[in-house]
Amino acid sequence: MSSRLKAFADTVWTWIRRHPFFAAALIVIGAAIDVFYELAEELPEGDLGPFDNFVRHIVQQYQLPGLFVFSIVMTDLLIVPSRAADWRTVNIIYLLLPFVIYLVAVRRYILAIGIIVIPSLTGLLIGLLKGIYHRPRPEHELIITPGYSFPSGHAFSSVVIYGLLGYVAWKCFSRRRRQRASIVFVVILLILATGYARVYLGVHYPSDVAGGWIGGLAVLCGGIALLEVLQRRCK
Question: What is the pTM for the complete model shown?
Answer without folding.
Answer: 0.85
